[in-house]
Amino acid sequence: MIYLVWQQLLGELRKLFSRKRTYIGFAAFLVVEVAILGLLQLPSAQRAVARVLENSGFFFEDYYSGLTLAFLMMTNTIFFLGSLYLALVSGDVVAKEVEDGTLRMILCRPVSRWRLILIKFAACVTYTGALMVFVTVSSLAVGVAYQGMGNLFVYAPLQGVFSLFEPSEALWRYFLNIGLLTLLTTTITALAFMFSCFRIKPAAASIVALSILFLDMVLQLMPYFESIHPWLLTYHMSIWVHLFQATVPWWKLMESICYLMAFNLSFLLIGGCVFSIRDFKS
Prior knowledge:
This protein has 282 residues and is mostly helical. The chain is 71% helix and 4% strand. It has 13 helices and two strands. It has helices at 2-17, 24-39, 43-55, 60-63, 66-75, 80-90, 95-100, 102-107, 113-147, 167-196, 202-221, 233-237, 250-277; strands spanning 152-156, 161-165. Strands 1-2 form a two-stranded antiparallel sheet. Helix 1 packs across helix 9, helix 2 packs parallel to helix 9 and helix 6 packs antiparallel against helix 11 (202-221). The longest helix is centred in the middle third of the chain and has 35 residues, at 113-147. It is elongated.
């Protein structure tokens, strides 16, 4: 049984990674990272970073490093591009097969619909992890290749984080962040996957998921709605920045992870229930 599930999962991964659109996100992240790196070399951008450091009594030259550049590249790409390409792939995974008619053939085999849905969702989560690994590692590689390792300077005013780290401590936080980002961004995957199980087109599934996420983000950015921020998905997704606080608020990270995992389970159950009662004969 386990062997059959494993083989089916490998089959789903082969289908997922054989599509050209699966790799658009990887290429887009790399292009945007290089573009941001170039923009960060502008005198105005460097003056802005220097002003924050020097107002706190630190030298710009000590903290304008590859690690700092990597962090800046991540914070400016991870949500907007991550949301777009995770929603694109996850919103496509079920709806596209329904549109192409291949799902009817798959359902002729003695495989339960719930098992099929869970395996497809596992493939989407695997893609999420692969994309987060690529984003974090490529940002670090681009930053270090240009500026060298150096110390890490973290400044995230929306989350109230201002921290300085030596390379040894910065690196373990940076790589631990890969797993945390995968957990947090799985909510984007689960939301788009849920709509993919509905009777709608693949593009519509992605667009609806993105619309909900961007509305959520707009509400989070507006100070008038500060009282409801803890209920918003993007508020908890941005909690990854707190991993770079001097003292990590582990309880806060766990609270956000549990909150998002509850939504992930809900999205998966709703999508699975809709898929299990759909009629694919007509």
